[in-house]
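Lecture notes, continued. The same structure-token format from the folding unit now serves as the input rather than the output. Read the line below as a description of shape only.
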């Protein structure tokens, strides 16, 4: 016990829980600096805190504030405590540090703390502060500093904010945080990760959340992360008290289903607030104000090329245990990428539209391997593939050989090979896929997660389509959006080639009433 805590023994000031509610100040979203009073979500979190904590949250619930105040308390009352703050940007990290600095500065303000300011003045004499924009040092040997990634040294407390955004848009930086900053914490010390989620069911943030969720209800070690989820409806201010204003019917249906799922009821004010926010936010509501963890994972990735279409597909029940049509033909659609990365979709063209049946992706494999995969599908589903739709580069001679990929597949016994002509612009292919997606269905197996040999979750085929996104590129003095080439792009490109084939009329559908592309100009 520190000398200060020994001196306070027997008084309310000796209780950390009491101190957090009585001696610290914050700057709220509106209004002047005031005494910090934890809200319901903050209280719930404080009472459930473990050594390592991972919070999946809705927007503006105050967890950064609570964690900052909690860290300040440790810095003041536990001499020699070293703490770190990591955020997506330097400016955001400095804002979190400012919360700590402000709370200290107002300890002895009689207007904010009419009952405790004298104690605050005494405490500031015992522990002096020296602050800069990125670091605060205290006279008792404690210090706290901030940045976008902290490596080196040993921390007793680490606050990581918005790891979801960092993992989605700066995966290398997220990996640095994981291997660097998180390893500065010894077992038994405190890590708080708090973030909304971005990136769908992909990336480091999703991997860490899923690992924590798997341990819910189990005994945790000091280095296991405890999963915390705090939905928007825990916030009392998230309501609109206008009982005479009706909630949209689709929102009423949403809450009927949510009530059955969660076993709780919602007030008209909560439903009206959600109605208006959803009207403003659209599909972003799933990211900013999720009601369940699953909703957060379904949120559209920023820059997602097919995000809106697949979100609508999910909403209309387009992912299910769809049976095969006994008469409609099967197709495979391929992408043959760099380093021999290959992705293949198995698709059935039915009267109701394309049914995506199965998927395979691998790299560094011979053509015979993929031919075996196709034959395995034919045996599994009891029919031959009508046509194999190959990208334009399948007709190009492979470097160092005198053959192209089409010839290699023919040697492996595949027939009915169709090379899909290249579009003049990749965005035309994307446009074709966007036009086709409202007619598509996906078998549920394409949305089932599996783990690799290291226990990490592999992206599902549908998750790859959802996560396929753009990046900014500089060309001719202009900033343009271009599809990002990453682990999702091969699967997305293969689906795009199917859409191109559909648009060009290359799908030989021999039964009546089949889906046909709109009569628009071809490239």
């Amino acid at each position: 016990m520190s000398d200060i805590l020994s001196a306070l023994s027997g008084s309310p000031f000796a209780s950390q829980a009491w101190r957090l509610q009585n001696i610290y100040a914050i700057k709220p979203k509106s209004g002047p600096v005031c005494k910090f009073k934890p809200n319901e979500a903050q209280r719930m979190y404080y009472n459930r805190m473990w050594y390592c904590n991972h919070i999946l949250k809705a927007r503006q619930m105050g967890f950064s504030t609570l964690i900052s105040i909690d860290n300040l308390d440790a810095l003041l009352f536990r001499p020699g405590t070293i703490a770190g703050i990591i955020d997506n940007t330097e400016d955001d990290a400095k804002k979190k540090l400012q919360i700590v600095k402000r709370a200290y500065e107002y300890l002895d303000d009689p207007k904010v703390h009419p009952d405790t300011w004298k104690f605050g003045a005494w405490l500031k004499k015992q522990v002096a502060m020296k602050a800069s924009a990125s670091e605060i040092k205290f006279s008792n040997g404690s210090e706290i500093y901030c940045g976008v990634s902290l490596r080196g040294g040993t921390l007793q407390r680490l606050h990581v904010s918005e790891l979801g955004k960092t993992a989605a848009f700066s995966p290398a930086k997220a990996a640095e945080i994981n291997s660097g900053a998180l390893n500065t914490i010894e077992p038994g010390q405190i890590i708080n990760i708090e973030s909304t989620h971005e990136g769908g069911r992909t990336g480091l943030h999703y991997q860490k959340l899923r690992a924590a969720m798997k341990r819910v209800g189990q005994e945790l070690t000091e280095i296991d992360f405890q999963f915390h989820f705090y939905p928007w409806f825990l916030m009392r201010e998230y309501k609109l008290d206008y009982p005479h204003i009706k909630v949209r019917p689709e929102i009423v249906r949403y809450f009927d289903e949510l009530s059955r799922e969660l076993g709780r009821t919602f007030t008209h004010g909560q439903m009206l607030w959600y109605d208006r926010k959803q009207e403003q936010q659209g599909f972003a509501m799933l990211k900013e104000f999720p009601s369940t963890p699953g909703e957060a994972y379904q949120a559209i990735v920023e820059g997602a090329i097919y995000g809106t279409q697949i979100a609508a597909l999910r909403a209309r029940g387009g992912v299910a245990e769809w049976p095969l049509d006994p008469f409609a033909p099967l197709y495979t659609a391929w992408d043959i990428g760099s380093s021999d990365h290959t992705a293949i979709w198995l698709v059935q063209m039915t009267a109701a539209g394309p049914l995506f049946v199965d998927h395979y992706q691998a790299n560094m494999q011979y053509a015979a391997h993929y031919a075996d995969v196709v034959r395995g599908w034919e045996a599994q589903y009891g029919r031959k593939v009508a046509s194999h739709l190959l990208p334009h580069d399948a007709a190009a001679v492979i470097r160092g050989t005198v053959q192209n990929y089409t010839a290699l597949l023919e040697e492996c016994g595949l027939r009915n090979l169709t090379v899909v002509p290249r579009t003049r612009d990749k965005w035309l292919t994307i446009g074709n896929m966007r036009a086709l997606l409202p007619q598509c269905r996906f078998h549920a197996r394409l949305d089932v997660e599996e783990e690799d040999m290291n226990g990490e979750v592999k992206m599902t085929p549908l998750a790859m389509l959802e996560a396929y996104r753009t990046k900014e590129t500089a060309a001719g003095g202009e900033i343009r959006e271009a599809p990002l080439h990453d682990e999702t792009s091969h699967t997305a490109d293969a689906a795009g080639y199917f859409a191109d084939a559909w648009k060009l009329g290359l799908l030989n559908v021999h039964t009546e009433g089949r889906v046909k592309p709109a009569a628009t100009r071809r490239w």
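Point for the exam: The longest strand covers residues 185-195.
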